[in-house]
Amino acid sequence: MAYIVSLSDGLLNNLFDDNNIIDFIDRCKIKATTLELGEAEKIILNEDVFCIAMHATLKPESVFESHKKYIDVHIVLDGCEKIELLKFDNSLECFESDIDNDYYLYNSDKKVKNIILEPGKAGVFMFEDVHKTGVKAGCDCSNVVKLVVKIKLNLFEKVFHYE
């Protein structure tokens, strides 16, 4: 089940119990704001946590993806992004996968739930949440500066605030 979490007070303490992760995300935020359009950088905390900081152009369309090793936490720092969400079921057909890089790609014509992520909100996508990211939200935003924090499930269950 996907979670949308408000970060309205600007503090990641609403999301995580672990100060090491909070400090890491704060460092990643600083890095993301220095990236030029089209750049992305993978930043590693440890074997359980890493982040992809990016400054990306939003697209009118994308493909669905899911993950099996890591939970995705999307944090938009600037701009707004539409994320389309499907619940995984056996009728979805994976057309590409990479076990080492933990991604599984799908096409689907099924009805989706649309989520708009903007600064002050984080989207948390679990294993069963097939999601399409980087989609233009219909607002004036054409670019997004964001973090995708990847956390292994065993650690995620210990540090995430389920509200």
TrEMBL record:
Source organism's superkingdom? Answer: Bacteria
Entry GO terms, CC: cytosol
Task: Please give the NCBIfam families that the UniProt record associates with this protein.
Answer: YhcH/YjgK/YiaL family protein
Name of the molecule in the record = YhcH/YjgK/YiaL family protein
The species this protein was found in: endosymbiont of Galathealinum brachiosum
